[in-house]
Amino acid sequence: MTAAISTTSALLVAIIGFWLALRQDKVRWVREKRSELYIDLLAEAHAEEQWMVNRLTAREIREIAGPRRNGPGDR
Fold first, then answer.
1. Residue 57 needs a FRET pair 20 to 30 A away by CA distance; which of 18, 48, 65, 73 works?
2. Taking 70 as the threshold, does the pLDDT of residue 73 lie above it?
3. Helix, strand or coil, per DSSP, at residue 69
4. Cα 26 to the chain's mean position, in Å?
């Protein structure tokens, strides 16, 4: 009787420990993926910001330079 109780409790402790480890691993995996996503989003936002700054700067330079003078090949 005592052997059956100790065997059952040993198996139960092992199963619960394994289940908790799996749950903890899943939470860790989700956090890692979330942090990777945040990093990717921040990098993309920074790249778009730089593109927009460069685009606006190019437009402002054209506005400052004034209209183009038509050369012999331009209409």
1. 73
2. no
3. coil
4. 18
